[in-house]
Amino acid sequence: MNDACDVAVVGAGPAGLVAAIEAARAGLSVTVVDEFPWPGGRLLGQLYTDPRSHGRWDGRKISRQLAQEAGELGVRILGGATVWAVGRDLSLELSGVPVGTLRPQALLLATGAAERALPVPGWTKPGVVCVGAAQTFTNVHHVAIGRRVLVAGIDPLALSVAMEMHHAGVDVAGVVLPPVSTTSGALASPERAVARLADVADLAPNGLLRAAARLAAGKLSPLAVSALRFDLVRVGGVSIGFRTALVAVEGDGRVESATLRSVAPDGTLVGPERRIEVDAVCISAGLYPLTDLAEIAGCPMVEVEELGGLVPLHGPGLETPLERLFVAGNLTGIEGAKVAIAQGRQAGCSIARSLGRATLVSPEDAARAVSDARTSSPFRFQPRIAAGRAAMAELWQQAIARGDQSA
Amino acid sequence: MNDVIICRCEGVRLSEIEQAIREGASAVPGVKKRTRAGMGPCQGRVCQRVVLQLLQQPPSEAGESPDALQRSRSPVRPTLLGDL
Ligand SMILES: Cc1cc2nc3c(=O)[nH]c(=O)nc-3n(C[C@H](O)[C@H](O)[C@H](O)COP(=O)(O)OP(=O)(O)OC[C@H]3O[C@@H](n4cnc5c(N)ncnc54)[C@H](O)[C@@H]3O)c2cc1C
Ligand code: FES
């Protein structure tokens, strides 16, 4: 069965849902498709206290509200629909639902992010999970990934998921550095781990700990880190081992223990191995934009390390060089959900204007809302995100000067 | 024990990828053609960035340039033949 609509959105995460709402408000017919059965994307797993908005950030509730608002505006949401191809005419090939092909006038890709893998001996054993899966098990399905869990990777997401598991009653044996290997590179340095603490300092559940985390992150110069006598810092009831790394996971058929070693300030392993008993290991190695559909749509890709790696080239209104193809959310750079929501609104307005519709929000206001959301986010996934956004603006200007922009 | 699996889908180990690099693979597609790493159901979503890091030892300026990575192809997800 073929189907026509004004706007198709791939990804029912915060960016896609909010864009759909905005486009529908401008009077357009919108279809949102997502391979997951329920709308919400990565919002579904998010549950924490957000000190900046003085309340609880309940991603499931926000997802429900957005989906309901979209529904009331006549947006069609197709869950369990996987997009396996995008044509040059922006048509979408779907699998899993009776609709075979969608033929929209304009297309928004809001496919989010994927997780980086971090191979360590034993990482394919049952009981080793990536941090996103741990978050989904804990907050969406309310299932503990193990009785005693080790978290490997010291970054905002790992720390937040470690605290979420701790609050859910899981015995978190500790958060340690990821394995030191050819494949983890800079991830395994104590210096870098301490620096990343600043990016999550606001999440610590009480003021004292927040202050401690900020102090640890701000005041500890690299020199101080190398002088760090102590290995463990406790944040929100979870021990963080800045000088300890995971070296292997063992077990007969499933995870039974993990082997750890100390790490010198320069990142090299020192001292004897020690083994701790755990029945699950959660690995976090960072996120990268999920660009597969943007690539096959023919959108030029550029590498901007500060945004998380390879991203589709896009302009200040989230337009791409391809006419009527737009991008939003984590696909354009790894940031928190608040930014994705603001970007969704911006993309929805840009799409409406590209199809000749008036919008309530001006392009300037929509852009300002994105930077405001960035400032008020409790999370910073990419430490130099503002530099990344500036680099993209520069690349876009260069592309326009070369004349590759069709719009 | 140290010969860790890098591509889970195709069961390709570190030593096989290092061998491919010694044989002259200079980017992800070259490793893919020699070892099948990246050809599994996830289409390299899990292993591709790791393979790239192995190729770039020591880490190079090139980073994740489009040329260093494999190109996405449709179908981008495992798809039923009936839906094609
Ligand atoms: C593991 C993980 C944990 C995170 N935790 C947090 C957190 O705690 N707090 C926070 O602020 N941010 C978190 N983030 C960042 C998060 O991605 C953003 O907060 C926000 O959800 C991004 O919104 P989005 O709309 O861009 O993408 P997402 O919310 O990721 O939604 C993208 C959607 O696109 C769908 N999709 C992708 N490809 C296809 C396809 N081919 N066919 C059909 N559907 C497709 C996916 O199923 C998904 O539902 C996390 C990200 C990840 C990956
Ligand atoms: S892990 Fe290599 S193709 Fe899936």
Report on this structure:
The complex is a heterodimer of chains A (407) and B (84). With 407 residues, chain A is an alpha/beta fold. Chain A folds into two domains: 2-114 and 287-402, FAD/NAD(P)-binding domain; 117-283, FAD/NAD(P)-binding domain. Chain A is 32% helix and 27% strand. Chain A contains eleven helices and 21 strands. In chain A, strands 10, 11, 12, 13, 14, 15, 16 and 17 form an eight-stranded mixed beta sheet that branches. In chain A, a hairpin with a 5-residue loop joins strand 15 (257-263) and strand 16. The longest helix of chain A is centred in the C-terminal third of the chain and has 18 residues, at 337-354. The radius of gyration of chain A is 22 Å and the shape is globular. Chain A starts with a strand and ends in a 5-residue tail after the last helix. Mean pLDDT of chain A is 86; it is low at 204-209 and 219-230. Chain B is mostly helical and 84 residues long. Chain B has one domain (1-61): BFD-like [2Fe-2S]-binding domain (Arc Repressor Mutant, subunit A), CATH 1.10.10. Chain B has helices at residues 14-22, 28-35, 48-55; strands at residues 5-7, 12-13. In chain B, strands 1-2 form a two-stranded antiparallel ribbon. In chain B, strand 1 and strand 2 form a beta hairpin. The interface between A and B is medium-sized, with 38 and 32 residues. Bound molecules: flavin-adenine dinucleotide (FAD) and FE2/S2 (inorganic) cluster.
Give me the CATH superfamily of chain B: BFD-like [2Fe-2S]-binding domain
Give the CATH architecture of the largest domain in chain A.
3-Layer(bba) Sandwich
- Please bin the fraction of helical residues of chain A: 25-40%
Q: What composes the largest sheet of chain B?
A: 2 strands, antiparallel
Name the structural class of chain A: alpha/beta
The unreliable regions of chain A are: 204-209, 219-230
Mean pLDDT of chain A: 86
State the domain count of chain B.
1
The CATH topology of the largest domain in chain A is what? FAD/NAD(P)-binding domain
Distance between the termini of chain B: 41 Å
